């Protein structure tokens, strides 16, 4: 039996302060315990809705998105109350790791392609030199698409592009050659 329960049982015969003094317990601590014992209220519906929405969204939603979701269900509650509920239940939104796909092989054995345009004069006419680059685009269902673009260095116009699901395969190929011969690929 706890000290507080003992005090509660004997409080009808002996004053509470006297029992607290004899048992070396602060009266305020006993009264705080006593208030908690009488408060076995059911959990508010909005708190249950917050916890369910948090679990439904794989513990990724923070207070802003949880508030929008709970308010859409008809509960008028603010971010700070939601924050207190999450903290009381030990819940914390998981931050997704940022992911940037690797388009460059950083192994020390792999050498970067040499800059074949270094030291050469700027092109004076179109279709003398093409340059290219690769970038990635996020797909709506997850994953990535890789976009390769070739530009004419003189006119600065796009002369070709290609989209692949895998970054491999672009290598040094360019867009299909035009009539008049293929220019040097940089």
Notes on the structure:
The protein is α+β, with helices and mostly antiparallel strands and 186 residues long. The protein folds into three domains: 3-38; 45-88; 129-185, no CATH class. The chain has six helices and four strands; from the N terminus they run ααααααββββ. A four-stranded mixed sheet has the order 3-2-1-4, with no helix packed on it. Helix 4 packs across helix 5 and helix 5 (63-72) packs across helix 6 (79-88). The longest helix is centred in the N-terminal third of the chain and has 12 residues, at 27-38. The chain is rod-shaped and about 105 Å long. The termini are far apart. The mean pLDDT is 83.
| Overall 3D form | rod-shaped
Distance separating the two termini: 84 Å
Radius of gyration of CA atoms, rounded to a whole number:
35 Å
**Number of separate helices:** 6
Proportion in helices:
25-40%
How would you briefly describe this protein structure?
With 186 residues, this protein is an alpha+beta fold. Helix content is 32%, strand content 15%.
Helix/strand layout:
Elements: H1 3-10, H2 16-22, H3 27-38, H4 45-56, H5 63-72, H6 79-88, E1 129-138, E2 144-152, E3 158-164, E4 184-185
Parallel strand pairs: 1-4
Antiparallel strand pairs: 1-2, 2-3
Helix pairs in contact: 4-5, 5-6
């Amino acid at each position: 039996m706890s000290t507080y329960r003992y005090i509660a049982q004997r409080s009808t015969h002996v004053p509470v302060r006297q029992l607290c003094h004899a048992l070396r317990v602060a009266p305020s601590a006993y009264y705080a315990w006593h208030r908690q014992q009488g408060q076995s209220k059911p959990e508010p519906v909005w708190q249950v809705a917050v916890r369910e929405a948090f679990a439904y969204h794989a513990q990724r939603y923070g207070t802003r998105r949880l508030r929008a979701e709970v308010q859409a269900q008809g509960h008028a509650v603010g971010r700070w109350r939601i924050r207190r509920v999450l903290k009381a239940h030990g819940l914390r939104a998981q931050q997704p790791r940022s992911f940037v796909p690797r388009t460059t092989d950083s192994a020390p054995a792999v050498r970067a392609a040499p800059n074949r345009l270094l030291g050469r004069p700027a092109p004076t006419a179109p279709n003398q030199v093409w340059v290219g680059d690769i970038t990635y685009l996020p797909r709506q269902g997850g994953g990535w698409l890789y976009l390769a673009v070739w530009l004419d260095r003189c006119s600065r116009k796009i002369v070709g592009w290609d989209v692949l699901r895998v970054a491999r395969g672009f290598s040094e190929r360019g867009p299909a050659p035009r009539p008049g011969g293929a220019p040097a690929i940089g």
